[in-house]
Design goal:
Layout: E1 2-3, H1 7-17, E2 23-26, E3 38-40, E4 43-44, H2 45-50, E5 55-58, H3 64-73, E6 79-83, H4 88-91, H5 96-102, E7 107-112, H6 127-134, H7 136-139, H8 157-180, E8 184-189, H9 190-194
Parallel strand pairs: 1-6, 2-5, 6-7, 7-8
Antiparallel strand pairs: 3-4
Helix pairs in contact: 1-8
């Protein structure tokens, strides 16, 4: 699991709770969600609630030696899940073309905020951004006098919904691989879920 914040971690938490062995890969200082509302240095309830039942690997993926280590680990994996900005996976050499060349039947789950194609395919984003773009905020009546979307107080529904879609996509891809021997890439976006 190469993911941070909510959608990817929630997907892998669901897989872990169904019995998968999940290795969460984080930078040596930990992912940013560890810093949000800490109760102890480097520990936060938000992080813990999305990362239970997982193993952890702290590694500096920007370093060539770390990338080579990951490439040696991939043949032992059934699934790789990536939840980074569109440009990050290729830079870290954990993109689908690189890893599927190492393991032909790999299931690769890729999540972005807005997708990889189209005029916004290069842009990062978060749940609140796609709630505004998709009209979810307006649908809840969260609109100001000037027509601008107002901040929502409800949960990150695009993130959690995408996490569920990713987990189900992975289980379907594993079933397909069992029947055919073929790996595949699964693509999910927060915006697609919100729409």
């Amino acid at each position: 699991e190469f993911s941070q914040i909510i959608a990817g971690p929630y997907a892998c938490q669901n897989l872990a709770e169904m019995g998968a062995e999940v290795i969460k890969v984080e930078p040596p200082d930990g992912e940013p969600w560890r810093q949000f509302s800490q109760f102890y240095p480097g520990e936060a309830k938000y992080f813990q609630s999305l990362n239970k039942a997982k193993q952890s690997l702290a590694i500096a993926l920007q370093e060539t030696e770390a990338q080579e280590f990951i490439h040696k680990l991939v043949p032992t994996c059934d699934v790789v899940l990536v939840n980074y900005r569109p440009d990050v996976a290729e830079k870290l050499r954990i993109d689908y073309p690189t890893l599927s060349a190492i393991k032909k039947d790999l299931i690769y789950a890729d999540n972005t905020a807005l997708g990889r194609r189209g005029p916004s395919g290069h842009r990062p984003g978060y749940d609140i951004v796609v709630q505004a773009m998709s009209g979810m905020m307006a649908g809840e009546g969260k609109v100001g006098d000037g027509g601008e979307p107002k901040l929502m107080s409800s949960t990150a529904v695009a993130d959690y919904g995408t996490g569920l879609a990713l987990a189900w996509g992975v289980t379907a891809a594993l079933f397909h691989r069992e029947r055919t021997g073929e790996g595949q890439m699964i693509e999910a976006t927060l915006l697609q879920t919100a729409m």
